[in-house]
Amino acid sequence: ACLQIFRFRKINFNNMDNQKIQEIKETVQSSHLNFLIGAGLSTPFLPLLGDIETRLSNETRKAERIKIKKEYFQKVMMPNLEIVTDKVETSKQSGFKKTCKNYKEFFELIARILLKRESTILSKQANIFTTNIDILMETVLEESGLEYNDGFTGRINSTFSLSNFKKSILKRSLHFENVSEVPVFNLIKIHGSLTWDKTDDKILFSKLSHFDGSLLKEEGESFENKYNKLAIINPERKKLEETVIDLTYYELLRMYSSELEKENAVLFVMGFSMEDEHIREITIRTANSNPTLKIYIFCHDKDSDSKMKNKMQVGKLRYSNIEIVEPEGDGDKLTLEKINESFFKEILSSMSYEG
Question: Is the pLDDT of residue 260 over 60?
Answer without folding.
Answer: yes
